[in-house]
Amino acid sequence: MDLQHTGFGIWDYISVALVLIISSGIGIYYRFTGGKQKTVQEYLHADKNMSIYPVAISLMASFMSAVTLLGVSSENYTFGFQFVIIYLGHLVFTPVAAYLYLPVFFKLQTTSAYEYLELRFGKTARLATSLCYTLQMTLYTGVVIYAPALALEALTGINRIAAVLSIGLVCTFYATIGGMKAVVMTDVFQAILMFLGVFSVIISSLVTNGGFANVWKIAAQGNRTDVWNFDPDPTVRHSWFSLVLGGGILYLSLYGVNQTQIQRYLTVRDLKKAQTALWLNWPIFCSLGLATSFCGLAIYAQYRDCDPIKAKFITSMDQLMPYYVLDTMGHIPGLAGLFVAGIFSASLSTISASLNSVAAVTMEDYYKPFRRYMNQDDLSPKSAATLTKCVALVCGVICLGVAFLVQYLGAILKTSLTIFGAVGGPILGLFSLGMFTFTANELGSLTGLFWGMVASMWLAFAPKPLLKPLPTFTDGCINGTIKNTHTVNWSQLSEIDLPWIYRVSYLYNGVIGLVITVTVGYFTSWIVRWKTNRPIQCENYDPNLFIPPLSRRLIIRKKENKTFHLVKRSESDEDLREEKYTL
């Protein structure tokens, strides 16, 4: 294909511009309606009056970014359809998030999810974990900003720097002024565009290649439809074990204890509605994920005899879907623009969610404790809301800077999942120690977090063996010049140069971090209690800090002792108060 003869037309630019304008307009609307974002409660929690349906869609859009649209399609093109099994892992772990972790956060009603760790362990645990979260989301947001810049550069030739700036600045603008209401409602608008962009690719391929059955047949001939890999070997990159277990733990770290999602749950009024929103999220998330995965097969059906990478038409697999759109739909006015609008929307929804949640953590976990340490008075509600907006703005600028470094991290899908697994697994382990056990204490849990983080980060950024993709060909290429088509002789590659642990699938990073954090944390806590002669005194625990089964067990014990203490949120301010209850 000659890229010079199929460009981005005026209608395509209009489509993209409309997405940016409408997204900004939603932010402006919520800035000047309702409470006008004058309180932290409205700015970060939307006054707790959101409907479950936009919240369910927002839960999906928060992490179904351009990374998914570009990365999953190229993953299925290169390695086959096996990746779809990860959505089964999400289903398996949804009830765990909904009925074990979520009730704890809903009882406490804290702005920062990491305030739980201070109540359960102490201030050090809270600060350490919130810092890990801030690092995680800053890196991931940089990936998400960079991904659509790739698409825009591949389609239009617009400078990548200009693309990064346009996406990052627009998103920072509406997330800063419109608060959580603007973020959630733009997520709904942008989710629709994400579906439209993906289905435009699928429909185009089905029309070109003779329907679904024929596309599937072509993919099967290319060995890309096998999803029945049950090999338990942890060095197998994608199998049912790695995708269900590793993908499930990754999902649980995002939807069970991640600040971004906890903040969305708390925009509805009661626990049941939050659980319903989480359950509704799964079919929406799964539908877009399956459609994006099928895009990879649909694109393979088009390029089965002329691989764009081998033919040097594109330089990265993450440019595969944008290249397909330009190649097959570039002549239809506005259709390529619709696809890019979907890519933009996927990134905007995720970036805005990150900025809002990181701003909340910065205010609640860093700034307010610092003011109390300095014996300064609390800010007025209006001043606190204004400062939170400024923090969101600064976070947006920082994430823009990170975006320019992402190009050195490799394939975007693997990079994003690696970041979340390496940080999310140990954080999930720390919350699990607090919610699932009475034995865990602060020293033991922090020790577990440290070693879990060291192990998972070491595995995440250790040298990895060269991946062997499924075969592709260039025999059918007619136009363009094919240069340097020398292929790697995979049979001569040996993995014995790398230790076994380095060959473990990247999806197990989070699992290993979780297991090490829980194991080391639990036994270290037990040793600390034994050495200091401090037995577990369950009567001193607040039942609200534990999962429902343990909470009920504690309440029964406390009834036997007639009195117990609960840590309650004050309805009038952000302070904690302790109340004594007699049964």
Describe the fold and architecture:
Strands 1-2 form a two-stranded antiparallel sheet. It has 583 residues and is mainly alpha-helical. It is 66% helix and 2% strand. The protein is built from 19 helices and 2 strands. It is globular, with a radius of gyration of 25 Å. Keywords: Cell membrane, Ion transport, Membrane, Sodium, Sodium transport, Transmembrane, Transmembrane helix, Transport. GO terms for molecular function: transmembrane transporter activity. It is a multi-pass membrane protein.
Question: Can you summarize this structure?
Answer:
The chain is mostly helical and 583 residues long.
> What would you report as the Rg, rounded to the nearest angstrom?
25 Å
Named CATH architecture of the domain at 31-80 and 99-234 and 253-411: Up-down Bundle
Helical proportion, percent range: 55-70%
Q: Beta-sheet strand percentage?
A: under 5%
Mean pLDDT: 82
Q: What's the CATH class label of the domain at 31-80 and 99-234 and 253-411? A: Mainly Alpha
Rough shape?
globular
Major pleated sheet: 2 strands, antiparallel
Strand order of the largest sheet: 1-2
Q: In total, how many beta strands?
A: 2
- List low-pLDDT spans: 1-6, 480-495, 568-583
SSE arrangement, N to C: HHHHHHHHHHHHHHHHHHHEE
Put simply, the count of helices is 19
What is the end-to-end distance?
77 Å
CATH H-level superfamily of the domain at 31-80 and 99-234 and 253-411: Sodium/glucose cotransporter
